[in-house]
Amino acid sequence: MRTYRLTYSDIRGRAELARLVFVAAGESFEDRRVSREEWAELKKETPFGQIPVLEVDGKPLAQSYAIARFLGREFGLAGSSNWESAQIDQVMDLVEDLRRELLKVIFEKEPDKKKDLEQKLQDEVFPKFIVFFQKLLENTGGQYFVGSSLSLADLAVLDLFDTPLQMYPSLLDKSPALQAHRKLLESSPKLDEYLKSRKKTDI
């Protein structure tokens, strides 16, 4: 039986998708959350000097999407065909495109520039991407993003909108399809317990 240890900071961040995969699949893992002081000591031992890192039977794997995709394949959440796997990758790449725009706002230090970026995010970026995600969802019947069952794509979108919805609670009010998708995942027995009990963080 394989053992898994996921190392990251005590926030959702770049490790949360992997955590969601473990939870949704009902698989056990060690959720190792390190402090800044611990990270300073650990950094030199990681493949690229960054986290998250997943250890599988003691062997390290870095890069958040490489980790998530590996776990998706491990636990049957990576599609039932090569075409479905490509569709999942398409959704995940779209997730990353929007995440980059969001991070520009979160990490901008100059107040005026931050305000301008935030306004653009609300007026242009979010509306554009919400339409993209909604169309993808509607094209597969409106329940899951790829195929007829839960996949890595669904978990990636669930994770993506956590921070924006903390910032703008009404963000998905005009997208009933995305709201329904989110409620579907949040109400699944395995995810429900985890989502309600996890530590609340800004990112």
From TrEMBL:
It comes from the Eukaryota. Keywords: Eye lens protein, Transferase. One of its GO terms (molecular function) is glutathione transferase activity. One of its GO terms (biological process) is glutathione metabolic process. Residues 81-203 form the GST C-terminal domain. It is an enzyme of class 2 (transferase). It catalyses: RX + glutathione = an S-substituted glutathione + a halide anion + H(+). Coiled coil: none annotated. It holds the Pfam family GST_N. PANTHER family: GLUTATHIONE S-TRANSFERASE (PTHR11571), HEMATOPOIETIC PROSTAGLANDIN D SYNTHASE (PTHR11571:SF224). Belongs to the GST superfamily. This is glutathione transferase. It comes from Sinohyriopsis cumingii (Triangle sail mussel).
